[in-house]
Amino acid sequence: MIPELRRRAYLSAMQVANWLPRVALPFAAPSRPELLEPLEEPSIDAQPQATAAPEPSAVAEPPAVARPRVEVPRPKSQERNPRPVVSDEEQTSSAEVKPATEPPPRFALQLLRAGSCAVLVELPTGEPLQGRDPAYLLLKDLLRAAGLPDSPHMIGQPVRWPLLARGNMDQGPAAALEFVQSFVAARLEEQEPCTCLWLVGLPAIRFAGEADAVDYNRELQIDGIGSAWAVPGLELLMDEPARKADLWQAMRRVSQRWMSQPE
């Protein structure tokens, strides 16, 4: 037989709150009188008829004791790395603050003088025009048809853009426009008065006359330079001969500016 204290420890471990021994136990505490009283049997009328009485089990199981559940807080992924919410207005304003930088245009131009007219011509290969180049032969034909000397002489060195291969200097379209116009105006001031400036090729029209391809064969007015005439590029005229018809018609109209001028 085990002592009373150890017996109570075993019963507590088995979750037995009340128990009654069948025989007197040595070294046991006296039983409480209220535990020896018989239990009252419940009346039949007190139980609901629809509920069936559970079958008694052979061995009475101790009641389960609910253990307290400890919740451990876990940080969420969104709280660990919160992402700032940017509105559409903020995105638009940031895009306006940092405008995209336009790449520098690439072209080569040569300024020539033929009689009372100056010619700013695009160099198709980037090098000065040579006597046997097809583009130069076409230019001579255009000057001859316009009643101008067909052997123009160069004014200054060719203008090649961009000016620098490296560096932080702005070489975008706006800078190219300002440079070409300043260059042409300065070179023409050193020459005799110019009746009309031929702009041959899209780069010459765009960066000296502030015009575009829609202005082919039209007359232009350039601040600080004067009257100009937009002519398609020499290579474009060779690739698309049908453009020459519109060019001849425009030449008959524009040539009145220099036909009366001495060479």
Features:
263 residues; alpha/beta; Uracil-DNA Glycosylase, subunit E; seven-stranded mixed sheet; 9 helices; 13% strand
Uncertain runs: none
Task: Look up the CATH topology of the domain at 107-259.
Answer: Uracil-DNA Glycosylase, subunit E
**How many helices does DSSP assign?**
9
- Cα-based radius of gyration, to the nearest Å: 52 Å
Question: Would you give an account of this structure?
Answer:
The protein is of the alpha/beta class and 263 residues long. Among the domains are: 4-32, no CATH class; 107-259, 3-Layer(aba) Sandwich (Uracil-DNA Glycosylase, subunit E), CATH 3.40.470. The protein has helices spanning 4-13, 77-80, 88-97, 134-145, 173-189, 202-209, 234-239, 243-254, 256-259, and strands at 107-114, 117-122, 153-154, 159-161, 196-200, 219-222, 226-231. Strand 1 and strand 2 form a beta hairpin. The longest helix has 17 residues, at 173-189. It is rod-shaped and about 150 Å long. 20% of the residues are buried. The model has no long low-confidence stretch (mean pLDDT 80).
